[in-house]
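INFO batch 0412 | record 1 of 1 | parsing
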Amino acid sequence: MTDARTTGDETPTLVATDTPSAAEMAVDVGVLVAHTAETGPERLRSFGERAAADAADELGSATDVTWRFYLEAPRRLPDTGRRRPAEFLDRATHEMVEGPYDAVLVVTDAPLVSSRERFVPGLASPLARVAVLSTRNLRRAPRGRPPRALDDAAVRWNGATLLVHLLGHVLGAGHSDGGAMAPFEFRPDRRAVPPMDADVEAYLHRIADEIPAEEATPRGPVGRLAFHARSALRNPSRVIGAVVNSRAPLLPLSLPKLSTAALTPTLVIVFSAESWDVGFNMDDVTAALFAVASVLVAAGYLFFAQNLSFPRKRHRLVTEQTALVNVAVLLVLVLAMAGLFALVWSVMLVVELLVFPPDLMSNWPSLEDPTVGFVDLVRTGAFISTIGVLSGALAGGLESRTIIAHLTLFRDRP
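INFO prediction complete | emitting tokens
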């Protein structure tokens, strides 16, 4: 990659680099400052510069490549409320493509919350290669004392340690028993960045050649689709890991609007004789294909209708990281819709088995064979559930565009 980087009319500044290594490879990190009205942009910018400078040498030593940090123009947040890390993902992926960068670090003074609604000092997304660092926890002082200043020595060195820790997660390193990758905790007496332990350093050395991501300029929708598919096939473990960690089939339980929109019409349809007539006369293969089609259509509709791809703005250049993010989000939506189908189906079976009078169907003249077996109940419930999934996607949607990315991409602890 070259040193020339531009974003619109602004030129990012090279603020930190480690001692150049013998290797020709370099990792370029974009640093985004997102400040509230409580903290001026220059103060937060200075903190980010110091943290990058303090962390660069340790990162270079651990990976045996040169790390370069480029500071983008600060952006002001509209309020001082708490933020999910996914709320910064759109701008981060935009800058990653525009840079282009191998990773992006967001530095903010807004409080940061995890997927479990806990306040945390920072979170990382290995798949998106985006880390978000909040100074709010770092500045917290013991009760009765004013908050620490951003230029306080404890804030400086704990911030640099957290930066190294988060970028270690970005590269796929887990928590270790000691060193910079030990579970992060604020230590008032910290005055240096702890080194990586031997196991983590050996791991980072092994993956060093994978750090620079592939870039492409695909032509048209088909070219973009092919690049996304190729990126996913090159990195199946990263995509699968993000999807598994998201607990995607359980997501409908976190989306009450979607689940309500899916369940409400089915509770009416299940008492309709016409739905039973269709369900009884539908063969098993047709019912299964209809269920699969409804899940895929619902996921595709949500992905495109709510513009869940990253970055939101279309760019000529596409990076492998943004492609992997989009593939993971789409797969999570597919599994979430499958989970919604299972939820509605289970409710339909409960209604059919426990609420319906057992002899009610035998009195409906529309049914040629009034004998109702368990397989008939399962098939009819599945048919009604497909309608619920489609209505949930069309009428309910997602309460927030960021919730899928928040639960899919970011770890729930620093």
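INFO post-check: Confidence is low (pLDDT under 50) at residues 1-9.
INFO record closed
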